[in-house]
Design a protein that fits this description.
Largest sheet: 2 strands, antiparallel
Number of domains: 2
Radius of gyration: 18 Å
Shape: flat
Strand order of the largest sheet: 1-2
Mean pLDDT: 75
Strand content: 5-15%
Distance between the termini: 59 Å
Oligomer: single chain
Low-confidence stretches: 1-13
Length: 100
């Protein structure tokens, strides 16, 4: 491919992405793997608010909790863990109701 090609690829340690993907915010894409990669990239730059948006869209509760703890926002971390546990409990209750 020629140097100026729009299809030129950008290589990172974790994943090889089309170069246009690197300029798109996580809100513009529905690919979970790309959203998580973008969130990790933003987190590495110290853009925690934007990284949280990506993790929220991807449903990555663990990464969100990690950022909240790093920021010493214990209430938000606790709420995220509780919300995630509540969602799993409700899902288990629904499955049990269907089976029973």
């Amino acid at each position: 491919m020629p140097y100026g090609s729009r299809q030129r690829r950008v290589c990172t340690n974790a994943v090889s992405l089309p170069c246009f993907a690197c300029v798109l915010p996580c809100q513009a894409n529905d690919n979970r793997e790309l959203i998580l990669w973008w969130g990790k990239y933003l987190e590495s730059l110290g853009e925690y608010g934007k990284a949280l948006d990506c993790y929220r869209k991807a449903g990555d509760s663990l990464s969100m909790t990690r950022i909240f703890c790093f920021q010493r926002d214990w209430k938000a971390a606790e709420d995220e863990v509780r919300g995630n546990m509540w969602a799993r409990t409700r899902g288990a209750e629904r499955l049990a109701a269907r089976a029973g």
